[in-house]
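Section 3.1: Structural characterization of target chains.
Under the original work plan, the team committed to producing a structural model for every single-chain target entering the pipeline before any wet-lab resources were allocated. The record below documents one such target. The sequence was received from the expression subgroup and is listed exactly as submitted; it comprises 148 residues.
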Amino acid sequence: MGLTHPRRLYPAPLRREVVVMAWPTDGSESCTVIAADAFAGFVDPDDRPWECVILRAVFNPDECVSDPELRHYDSRSEVTRYPADLLWVPGTITDAAAWFAEHEPEPDECDYLDRIFIVRHDGKDLYLPVRPSLAAAMADQDRAGTTS
């Protein structure tokens, strides 16, 4: 007997957009997040250097569906509410815009329930959760302690 009602038992996957997170290197402001398609053709400002990354993340402020922790994104730890993936490493705005124009990454959808993390405990230190693939790639000195 199958479900005949159109409702889902669990929440539907969320759409992840390609976004740019940028911040001034002088530490004068917090980061800014914008949709990457609005980013094409940007160049570094002459008055101060900025650094940025390109991510695939839940970000749609027009529909009030955005990851509230996205500004705290860390490529090494899982600190966002929804999965966020690094597409392009930190660099200049000009280089990021060129990479985006060349590769044209697409949005996707992701399930955000039942994600698997590894949390390391070493003595009195408790570390932020990481994805298993990142934990496997850590150097030996960063893998000491116990995990759960």
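Strands lie at 14-24, 32-35, 50-57, 59-60, 65-66, 85-91, 108-110, 120-122, 125-126, 146-147.
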